[in-house]
Every structure is written in structure tokens, then in C-alpha cells.
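Fold sample X.
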Amino acid sequence: MEIREAGRRSAVVQRMRALTRARGRREQGLLLVEGATVLREALRAGLTVEQVVVDRRALESGRCAALLEELARAGVDQVYAAGDEVMASLSTMATSHDLVAAVRPPAPRPVDWRRLVALDGVQDPGNVGAVLRCAAAFGFDGAWLGEGTADAFQPKVLRASAGAVFHLALVQRVDLPAALAGARRSGAVVYGLDAHHGEDPRRCRFADRLVVLVGSEGRGVTPAAAQQVDHWLRIPTDPRVESLNAAAAAAVVLYEMAAARYNNGQHDQRR
């Protein structure tokens, strides 16, 4: 594998730096992937890695040796080495990772889904990433991200999901009321999460084909989307705590749904 130097004003660094912004990602049609964990998930998902910049000290110490071998097997024949100043300029965090990469996003793909999660105006990238990570972990097929929801492919969401977004069928900027209505017409049941009313998910018999609707942290599910909810779910909490945030609530419910399928002998064989 060829290793080339990348200075602060080099073309590759300028292009990579632009990927920290939504406009740059749109114009280049690329994602900014930070760190070995998320990059490995991108490789596992079969995504194309266009460029990689590695911290020079990580290269010299051998910390990235195993990952470089994986990149070579995926057809990457060149990486760029850079110093601390360049790595910091490419990072969306206070502390930079050993490497960053420009990656082609997954192509939209049709999926014969059974279980989806729908995010209704969830703006916090950490919460969006955590919900998507839980969806992948608990066997959901994909996610609908409604208007006002954070971009699933921005760096903060990718990090919070630990790359799990690459393993889900995602549709963004979805008209959720219309999509949920269509799902119900096809026989799916829509479950909405609410902090104040609804059935305890531990006592619920879940449908085989379903959508879980998660509202924003502040206002919850929008009125238009709420009209499409068949069953509301509420997670009981200690009186000292009014409610859980969107990611924590979704994690509990998605796990309960996965456990119910397992207990009913309906668990899948993907593991």
C-alpha cells in the first residue's frame, strides 16, 4: 500500500474537511467516517472507501496495521499520512481519531420489511445514532427518518450508532403521516412511544409486522403522525424521574419487542 503525505493545504485535506459540513457531503456525494470502529462497519457493509487519512504517529507505531490490511483487501491501495494539526482540522470532535475516511454512502435498497423504527423530528444526533444502533442490534430491518430528524449520515450520528446505520435500510426526509398510513393499509401495526400514557411494553402482545414511532425529546410525536398510531406504549419509571429520553425509551421498547419474538420462537437466524 502506498503512503503519501497530506499537508494542511493539500487537495485531499481540503476535500475531506468539506465533508464535516452537510453542504460538502451533498456536493461530493461522500460521508466523513471517523475512527476504526465506524470504518470497519463501513467495510463490513461493502461500502466503497475513496480516501483515508491516517495520523502519522499511529502509522509509525503500528496501531492501524490491522485496519490497513483490511483496507488493502477491500481494494484501497493508497492512504495519506498527516500530523496532529491536519488530523485536528478533519475531526468533528475535541479529540481526533487515528484516522478519517471519505466513504460512498450506501445506495437506497428496497427491503421486504417486518419491523421498522420511525423517527419523528428527533434532532439530537446522539439520540438518532443510539436509536439506529438499537434497531440494528435488536433485528429491525430499517428506519424512516421524518422531517426535522438529524441526518443519519452526519459524523455525530455515525459515531453514536457505531456504524450500525450502514446495516439498516434507511429512508430520510420521509412524510411520516403518509408513510405510516401506507404501512397500516399493508397490515402493519404502528406503536407510538409516549411519556405519559399507554400500555406497559412488558405486557403487550406485539404484531409480527410493525412500526415503532419515536417522537422528539421536547414535544414528542407530532399530531399528524399521532393520528396513525394504533397502540401507545409507556415505560413505567420511578416517580422521581418524569421520563426517559428518546434513545433510552426506544432501547427499552425495541428490546422488549425482540425478546417477545424470541420467546414466541420467532427469532431470526442472522446471528
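Fold sample Y, listed below.
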Amino acid sequence: MSKRNISQISDEGYNSDRSDRSENTTEKIRVLSRENRIFKEKYFVEKVINNSANGIIYKGFRKEDKIPVCVKQVPKSKVGTWSDISGRIVPNEFKMHIEAEKCEGVVQVLDWFERKSSFVCVMERPENSVDLFELSSRLGAFSEDPARIIFSQIVSTCSKLHQVGILHRDIKDENILVDVDTLETKLIDFGCATTFKEDEKLTEIAGTPEFFPPEVYTTGVYAPEASTVWSLGALLFVMLVGDLPFQTTEQITKREFRYPVRIEIE
């Protein structure tokens, strides 16, 4: 089973990183050179593990103690929204993730660096963990007990994020890491995340279409928390059934899906 709706990006590879002439100032070059040197001194990059819609994910480790890490390289040309961290302009994804990691159940950010044509985010890489999509592909539909353990953690993490005004906007099986021994979960990928206020309605669309609520297609306006609830419902269906509840936009807007024969409705 292949990953869903992931648009591949082109990139010349981690070590190429061409210069951006608009930033070709002596001070800027000095800063970027220093950060590039620090990164190479601290971390070793092994291989590409995923080419996502907004960046390339590498497997690696921290040289000092051999702790496994995940390195995400985001080309500046692919950054849609910018933010600020201590006076530095960075991808909004980095800002959202650093704010979100204060909540239990979110993968931790260890470092971030700016390079000439990209930004790099270094994150923890939990051992014995795979994403929920891969786990479902291996095992098929989950029984109720492990599904309950996994799902309750994800709901709790989303709730904590909402309490601090962060909306992930891409809750799906591919963005959840699961420890195959303990079933502990970690939420990843804040590339679609945004902030929101109580009772606010949003119109910017971001995420994975199969997990969008109907109102995204019908009115283009959605409530942050309600949209998460819908995505969580779709996720739970995937876990218990082994497939998406809806295959088309029309099915989502009409809320049309069929329970497999093995699912009993009480």
C-alpha cells in the first residue's frame, strides 16, 4: 500500500544546497556557514527515509551519544508561511512544532538550522516506532483494545494542542508514530499547523483531502476543533476497518460510506 496524496518535491540532495543571491551578504554568509559547520559537527545524516510534500526526511544520529534523530530539510522555495523565532525568520512549521512540543505526545525538536537554500529541523527519532499507516499496512484492521490505547493518546494530544491554541490540521495515520512494543504514540509533521482562537472560523485549507470534513468542500469555512474531531473519526475508522471511510469528495459531502460485513453496528 502506497502513501496517500503525497506530492513529491525535487531537491538536489542534502549536500548540494545552492546559494540564494538575494541573501548574498557577508554577515549572512558567515551566519549560515557557522550553522552548517555546527550541524555537521553535531549530527550524522545516514539516508533519506521519506520525500514528503514540503521537505525531505533523513535518518541520522547525534554524534555525541549516538541518539537516533530524524532530520527534515525544507527548501526555502517550498515554504508557504513564515514566522519568527527569537528575531530569526523561519518556516511557520518550525515555530508551530517548537510551541507544540510542550504538549505531551508530540515528537521533540532537538535543533534547527538555516542553510543557504533550506532550513533543517532535527527531531528525536523514537526507537521501535513506525508510523500508524505502516503499522496498519502490516497488521490490517486493529482489534478494539490496541485501537483504544492508541486512539486515546492521540485524542489527548490534540486536546492539549487545542488548549494552547494550536491546530495541527493534518491528523492522519501517516503523521502518528507508534512504539510497536508499548503502543506509545507521538504526533509528527506540523507543516499544516496554525494557531486559532476560541470560536474562530478558518478558511485556509491545509491537510490531506481524505480527512477533510464536509464543510471544507461545501462552504470553505470550518471550525478548528470540529475539523479535528472529523479527522479523528476518519482515523479511528481506518484503525478499526483497515481502509478509509470515504474514497471521493462526493462521498464526504454526502457522508456516504459502508461498513464492512465484519463490523457490527449496535
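Sample Y note: The longest strand covers residues 43-52.
Also: The mean pLDDT is 90.
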